[in-house]
Amino acid sequence: xxxxxxFRFHAPRTVREAADxxxxxxxxxxxxxxxxxxxxxxxRQQVPASLVGLRRVDELRQIIAGDGLAIGAGVTLAExxxxxxxxxxxxxxxPGPYAALWQAASQxxxxxxxxxxxxxxxxxxxxxxxxxxxNYEWRKAIDFCLKKDGGTCWVATSSPKCLAVSSTxxxxxxxxxxxxxxxxxxxxTRRIGATDxxxxxxxxxxxxxxxxxxxxxxxxxxDGWRSTYWKLRRRGAFDFPVLSVAAAARIHADGTVExxxxxxxxxASRPVESADAGAALLGRRLTDGQIALASDLAARPAxxxxxxxxxxVWRKRMARALVTYAxxxxxxxxxxxxxxxxxxxxxx
Length: 348
Description:
Blueprint: E1 8-10, H1 15-24, E2 28-31, H2 37-42, E3 50-53, E4 63-66, E5 68-72, H3 77-82, H4 84-87, H5 99-106, H6 111-116, H7 119-123, H8 136-142, H9 170-176, E6 180-184, E7 189-193, E8 213-220, E9 225-232, E10 243-251, E11 257-265, E12 272-273, H10 275-281, H11 288-299, H12 312-331, H13 336-344
Parallel strand pairs: 1-3, 2-3
Antiparallel strand pairs: 4-5, 5-8, 6-7, 6-8, 9-10, 10-11, 11-12
């Protein structure tokens, strides 16, 4: 049995108290659901001297509707899936504005873990790699990697930076929806676009400072928008994505696209938006030819590495396929059977 290292635990009841503890405790980390951090601690990937728990901070556990949705970072993934304001976006024949968020949250891990895991924790999920997500003895035997205790990235030994992969489900969806996040520290509060929360470095993958708390996710009001999220993984439940696609578009009554965003997950150390693919759709209908063009453009930034499941060439090909399926769903096609095929990995 793997046991976590010794640590001090703090249980503040307000964001201000939590921020003060984070600023005054050397080597402290935040924990909410703990579904990612605690296993990492058992594997000695993260060894904080103290943990600042956020489960008792009530202000982080609310979803407030106004000009869009303000989602507290402590809201569990299960609560998002059950929330009527998010769930009602799952409609026929085409998905509604928040469908991508509902689909992403509902596909994270298992029901047990969704009951514990929070949306803030999923946004800040540690990057993953076959050489990193192993126990301490395994990593020591091959020599430690650049992400933890070593000086070499074993994915690409000449790489100057870590290539561990972003495996959060909700981040691509929220980037496609144009969300923003609020970050609070003991002395500052700032609000940034969700896309600015990430950088393409497997080690330093967040721009959030160690003394900052992600408190709120702001999803704008998206009248006339449709969105969807597609996820590729070996098992139809539990696994992290080895590829994901979030697509959102505002479509005029005549079928022309007025705005569009396409975001790929699990292809780099951060979610990757394809601005070229979105631009190719503007002012045009979602015809088969236009979808094929956008899918080719969206797949270009996908450069899978040999540090997750499945073969590189197949995962690259699947990027094009999943973008195609996502855009067809936004068009209003019935994609239920195709989703079942993706879940079973029986694509042709």
